Fold these 2 entries.
Entry 1:
Amino acid sequence: MAKSNRTRWTRKHLLGLEDMSAGEILTVLDLADGYLPCVLSRRPCPPRLKGRTVLNLFCEDSTRTRTSFTFAAERLGARVFQFHASTSSLNKKESLVDTARNVEAMGLDAIVIRHQERQAPHRLAAAVECSVLNAGDDAHEHPTQALLDMLAIRRRLGRLEGLTLALVGDVRHSRVARSNLFGLSKFGNRVIFVGPEMFLKDLDVKAETSTDFDAVLPQCDAVMMLRVQFERHESMAFDIDKYTRGYQLTPTRLAKARPGAIVLHPGPVNRGIEMANEVADGPQSVILFQATCGVAVRMAALELCIGALERERKAAAKGKRR
Ligand code: CP
């Protein structure tokens, strides 16, 4: 898609990629692309969010997403408050919405939320005035992860259209797989969910699937490996040796992919399960580049959403003066 197909950004919330257009996705990616050199070189960035306050409201563990949202907001000059659910009044049965509205009353421009409940960010967005950015809700969506994956793919492969990508592993419990499916499909890419039958059956999204990783690999420009999310399994019997035999990405397996194919993983990587060390640390791996892209994408996402919020605030103030 040409750059002219970018769309003027009007959303104050970033909740998922399912209902975002290709033009909106390109708007985020192009702005993030412009930020990438300053992230890579550690050069200062324009303080476009100076004086703004962002709340990182994480109710589930995180390393990459929390850290990169923090770095992104700080690089643009915003102040970030880290909310830790385990030491908060959520433990005294205060609701998520009451918690957020109380902190918002102290002066907030954006809430970045990760939550174990599907659509918790959507619920919050309906209850607060400030911007809400989804940092992962249950196995539903993780939009900024998919956006950073798309930026890494576009940078490394030189395009974001007409590619074949395998998303391999526990797709059933993966919000990353869902957001990538929604996002990548909008650009005419072929996305194949690969894994054992137990992870492919009764999916609540329409996706091409395969249980045969070795047969899919020769078609792949990119392979995204996913962690087995044991914490989200209810009572699934899981044979780890059988799984690694069929689905671990080893150097031998990777050699079957298209020449120049790249390997992605959203992290955290469980080495020796979904991926061999030689692949995780090998020349085709873009895992650490994904982490770098994450800062640039989250800078773009915060700037666009808070920009839309401020236009809304200005219009409301103008309306009141009339
Ligand atoms: N990819 C990702 O969401 O990682 P974290 O859980 O460490 O944030």
Entry 2:
Amino acid sequence: MQDFEFHNPVKILFGKEQLVKLSDHIPREQRVLMIYGGGSIFRNGVYKKVIKALKKHDLFEFGGIEPNPTYETAMKAVNLIKEQNIEFLLAVGGGSVIDATKFIAAAALYTDGDPWKMHSEKKVINASLPFGTVLTLPATGSEMNKTTVMSRKSTDEKLAFASPLLYPRFSVLLPEAAGFLPPRQVANGVVDAYVHVIEQYLTYPVNAPLQDRFAESILLTLIEEGPKAYAKPSDYESMSNLMWCATMALNGLIQCGVPVDWSVHNIGHEITAFHGIDHARTLAIVLPGLWKTLKKEKKEKLLQYAERIWHITGGTDDERINNAIEKTVDFFGSLGVKTRLSDYGIGRETIDRIISRFKKRGSLKLGDRGLVTPVIVRKILECQL
Ligand code: NZQ
Ligand code: ZN
């Protein structure tokens, strides 16, 4: 096992009766800005409940955060915060609203010029406003981690940034609200959480059996519960299980002491940057390509994955691995998530654009051992044309 530090300070309030406690977790004297997206919170009843829970607070609102949240919109919220002397932020919605709130929390106190530098130059930050979240969509794990992923329209960029100052103070997880999701978003959530686990599990063995089994338990639960939540989002039990899986998939626990990859995400973000495709769908495209391309390098973990997740024990190593890749693609397909670039109308030109962008950013060596160079990125994406 590799050395690790683990600290996760996020308080989780999970379930049906938690929203009423909101006011206990936000200091009464602070001026609060509620941040939300395109209006789903008006339709699923969460907006009214938040207003009621915070009736004694001085509450302001900022709506209109987009899926794949943009720097341009988030900066408008930063201006509002400065004008109104806001002291506490509350994100209400999915991963996009939470990510935007993290960016806004840091940008409001940023003193080194354009806050976009946090993402583009990975600047260390020294301050951020405190914030909490109310989660209505199981997918990203943003509710319990320190990462934000923001897009900048003017440059077609989508970049991540992380800081220990960006952990939410608390997150209220609402499976009931997620019952209003369209099946497409539920499918996105299952696939995103699945690939988060894979990025921290399917690397190379370091004798960390507990982390492996944590990871495998999340994958197996997603395979069991994900399709039920997809078929009927209002099924509270399966949505609850999906939501907890998604949170546990990316809160730092399963990455303790093991190598991590994240090349699927890095490549996927570029596809979204150029084409606006849902985050999870880009992962479903890239993952099979990565496995086909790095079959030899990831062989041990791919065989373990084949046996423990898909119960594949017969055939040659190569056959087992191919079978596991096929099962994974079929699983995504059963949720209506397609895995070829052509399924999304994307051709070779995009591959060229992604490669030239990666080259421009300097020597690219993604993945658990830095094996994913621009040449490998090309191979991965060409497998998925
Ligand atoms: O904007 P509103 O009106 O709220 O509608 C949203 C949005 O249209 C809707 N929605 C949310 N909750 C709902 C609902 N509709 C009905 N009922 C509900 N209860 O769903 C749509 C998608 O929402 P979004 O927040 O964009 O989805 P998701 O949670 O999948 O977040 C995706 C973003 O997170 C980033 C992705 O790159 C993408 O930008 N990620 C963030 C990560 C992190 N911070 O750690 C890690 C991930 O790998 C990912 O990169
Ligand atoms: Zn993701």
